Structure formats: structure tokens, C-alpha cells
Amino acid sequence: MAGRRPQFVWMMVARSGTLIMGMLASVVVARALPPQSRGTYYMAVSVATAALSLGHLSVEQAQTALWARRGHRSRLDRGAVPLGLCVGSVAGAGALGLSALFQGRGHLPDTALLVTACAGVPLGMAVLYGTNITLLRDRTRVAGWAMVVSAVVQCLCLIGLGLTGLLTVWTVVAVWSGSFAVSLAVLVGAGGVTTGRPDVRLAAATCAKGLRFHTGSAAAYLLVRSDVFLLNALAGPRDVGVYTLAVTLAELSRLAVDVFAQVTLSLQFDGEGSASAQVTARLVRFTVLLGVTSAVTTVAVASVAVTPLYGHAYASAAGLVALLVPGVLLLSTARPLSTFLLRQGSSRLVVVPSLTALAVNTALNVAMIPVWGAAGCAVASTVAYGTLVAFQVRYFTRTSGLRWTCLLPTGAERSRLATEVRHRTRALRAGGTS
């Protein structure tokens, strides 16, 4: 683990910078747009994001599974971006076609706004595939720069539009869509992923392999985002505007855990069998410690910062954060388990947990949103995330032969973290009084 510390620190800095830019951008948007307009913008982005998440064919999972075969690596690398552009074009067109069928129902945005959002899907798909290759190549710095530069450009554009009075729902969506081009330029220009003539046969094999996992991937996406579509249909754009702000804030608690999972991804492929399981258990124990610390901090900060930053119209988002964070914590800390199960090569281990959790999420949302609105949506999401993680833990223990208690931090590990936190706190206090 110690050898990964520089990468972890760098990715933390990169992700923190990205989040700071994102938070600043969200404040600018919230101050310029009322909750209903923010909800309309978010729904347009959600349609494009759904095209990315449901149309990616789980190619990045197939890339990860095939990466163990060293002979495939160079061809997977040079084919990632062209494949992403092709698959993304089909996915974007499909999203627009489906949206046309529901236009005028379910509070969907107008066609022009959806076209603007979906224009970014091909670029976003190329970024998705390219970033995964970059991480598999252990080039975390390039992946970090791609995130940071894109976030800075997006934030500066929104600030400029806000200062000139040109910040509208359409311009916010256009900036979001264009930000993928910046990420892709950095990934390619900095050598994180190469481009060249793709191996058509391997590309087809990658898509075919990905489709084995895609039901699980699609269910996993719908698990974390279908609530927004249901809330929009059952309650309207205003509730979506407040709820999605709460989701954005709650997901801040994933920062340290996601970065740790990214920089340690290759460690789960270094060993075989029991060795990989032991590494996975160690990673989960550490992510639990990071996750709990981040979750407590996120809830505390949100409780005092939402109204001053975003205004009284978004005040209820603070309570929603507290309802969402436990589920986000469970989902993020179990990320190494997902990677371990993916490596086993059995689609059932990936698909069944996601489908079951999605069914729970949908049923609870339909029952609870009409009664409790966004709060019911938050509770339903947390329960569903817990269901997913419970299945993943069960499959991990059955596959690895380890007990579920090996995933819980030991007393020594908790003590080391507590000591580190105390030292950091004293150092900050000393710096503040000097």
C-alpha cells in the first residue's frame, strides 16, 4: 500500500480540485436558476448520462477482464477511443429516439435541450473507455489531469456566462456537453490512451464480453439514477432540483474512497485466487475507515453550509444529505468487492445483486415518493444500496472462502486512523494559531 501513496495523494488533489470546481459551478447555477429550472437542466443531463451508462455495453468491464491477457493490452489501448466514439454515437441517437416517444409526458425537457445534451454522448463514451485504459496502464496522473482541466474549463465558462447574464438552462447543458472534449484531449494528448487503427475483431469481442455483464451494469446505473426519473415523473422538476443537489453533496463523501479504489485497482490483478481475495479484504477494511470519516464530515458540513451557499430555496437539501449518505457510504466502500466479483468471470455474480437492488429501489420509490416526496426517494435509495452490498458481501465470502468479518477494520487499524486524525487536527490548529 505504501508504494501507492504518491498516486493516492495526487488523485486526491486532482479529485479535490475537480470537486471544488464542481461545487463552485453548482453554486453559480443554483444562484442563477431557481429549483425548477435546475431540475430541467438536470433532467436533460440525466437523459444523456443514461445514454452513456445504459449504452456503454459494459466495454470498460470487458477491458478490465481482458487486461489480464498481456497480448491484448496494446490493441485494447489503441482501440478504446474509436470504439467509444462509435458506440457513443449509437447510444446518443437511441436516447433521442426514445425521448421523442415520451415527449410531452413525465416532465421531460424539450427536444432542442435534449439534442444539446446528447451531442456530448460520443465524446463522453470515448472518455469513459479511455480513462479506464489509462487507469489500467497505471497512469493515474493523466487521468487526474483530464478531470481537473475539464472541471476548470467548465467552471470558468459557467462563471463567465453568469457574469455576462448569459447563464440559461441551455448554456449550462451546452457547457456540460462540451466539457467531454476537454477531457478527451488531455487523455490523448498526455499519453494516457493512444489512438490508432482499431482491431475490429478484438473490438467486437470486447463488446460481446461486455454484454455478458451489461445487465448488471445497466441495473447498477438505474439503481443510482432511476430515482431521479421517478421523482421527476411523480413529483416534478422542483423536487428534482433540490434532490439532485443533495445527491451531489452526499456523493462528496465518496471522494477519498473512489480515489483509493482507482489507485489500487491494479493490485487486485497482481495475485491469483486466495491472494487476490486477501488483498480485496484489506482494501475494503481501509475503504470502510475512509468512508465513515468522510460520511460524518459531509453530513456535518452540509448541515451548516447549504443555505448560506445555495439560498433558502434549497434549504431542505441538507436533511436529504443525511438520509442519502449512509447508502452512498455502503456503495462506495464495497467497490473493491465489485472488482473482485468481476474478475471471477461469472456474470451472475455481477448481475443478480444489481437486479435485486434495482427491484427494491423501484418498488420503494413508487410507494414512498407520493407520500414523502424527495425524502422518501432518499430513504428508498439508501435501503436499495444496502441490499446491493449485502449480496456482494455474500458472494464474496462464498467465492473466497473468507468470513464476512474479515471486511471489518481491526482495532489496530481503527487506532492508527484515529491517531493520524489527531495528529492532523493538532497540526491544523497549530498552523491556525501561528
Describe this structure in words.
The chain is mostly helical. The chain has one domain. The protein has 17 helices and no strands.
Tell me briefly what this model is.
The protein is mostly helical and 434 residues long. It has helices spanning 5-32, 35-55, 59-66, 73-101, 111-118, 121-136, 140-163, 169-189, 200-234, 237-250, 255-263, 274-310, 317-333, 335-343, 347-372, 374-400, 411-433.
Keywords:
434 residues; mainly alpha
The total domain count is: 1
**Mean of all residue-level pLDDT scores:** 85
How many strands, what sense, and barrel or not for the largest sheet?
none
The topology string of helices and strands comes to HHHHHHHHHHHHHHHHH
Contiguous uncertain segments of 5+ residues: none
* Gyration radius from CA atoms, angstroms: 21 Å
Task: Outline the fold blueprint.
Layout: H1 5-32, H2 35-55, H3 59-66, H4 73-101, H5 111-118, H6 121-136, H7 140-163, H8 169-189, H9 200-234, H10 237-250, H11 255-263, H12 274-310, H13 317-333, H14 335-343, H15 347-372, H16 374-400, H17 411-433
Helix pairs in contact: 1-7, 1-11, 2-4, 2-5, 2-6, 2-8, 2-9, 2-10, 3-6, 3-9, 4-5, 4-6, 5-8, 6-8, 7-8, 9-10, 9-15, 9-16, 10-13, 11-12, 12-13, 12-14, 13-16, 14-16, 15-16
